[in-house]
């Protein structure tokens, strides 16, 4: 049996494939708005495994599958055998004989890798502790729609060196942009990722330095899912890292702001900036999850 294509990090796509997926996402969005979408996924089923909460990811995958004529099954670890200790390898072999494509949101990245190894069908990472590649598809689509190709641009990441930051590092390589990261000491992205991309990725402790001349500024929550106990400590460590109009004044004049959401106003982003539609494109970014993932699923399923 030929091995299916998986999407566990952005690096599972070549630069050219990524560009094609983004263009397809833009086309699918236009078709959706024109009411001309057809049903390439008729009779096909997406399995959606969630071990963490979600609004956007769940709804965008489920709605996306429905729009293309297929259906989706929501599988929470709270009420499947996964939550009672059935091995991931067994779950992968069983589920992948029943559904046509799977998405997983979980904790350790090795869980999606193990699932993919035993799966007969494509597996998509819908967020792990280490990466959130589906969000980057939407973010790249949003930049392309607002400002054109990200190639050669300067992007700033301000905040935690977390799963989103790691996927931004992958995106820097694939889309050929410069990434200026600002994070407090102790919250750096994985050193190996930095080392592998040292030609285009820099890390500073000074948010103004990271944002300087940026075309695109992004941030995310300071305490990710699973880090709830660290919230107090993190609030203190990230003081001075709020992305607001003052910080944005160091970026290019036409710079745009992104946040994968949910947002925490007054923490990683000011309410005024988040609501400033001249700069903040967060609602387009959220909407694009729908179209970017439809394009991804079509690609992985060879349609
Ligand atoms: N951005 C994102 O993945 O949102 P959800 O956690 O709501 O899915
Ligand atoms: N870094 C955040 C992203 C949420 C979409 C988390 O992992 O909780």
From TrEMBL:
Residues 151-300 form the Aspartate/ornithine carbamoyltransferase Asp/Orn-binding domain. Residues 5-145 form the Aspartate/ornithine carbamoyltransferase carbamoyl-P binding domain. GO terms for molecular function: amino acid binding; ornithine carbamoyltransferase activity. GO terms for cellular component: cytoplasm. Gene3D superfamilies: Aspartate/ornithine carbamoyltransferase. It is found in: Cytoplasm. Carbamoyl phosphate binds at residues 54-57, 81, 105, 132-135, 260-261, 289. It catalyses: carbamoyl phosphate + L-ornithine = L-citrulline + phosphate + H(+). HAMAP family: OTCase. This is Ornithine carbamoyltransferase. It comes from Saccharophagus degradans (strain 2-40 / ATCC 43961 / DSM 17024).
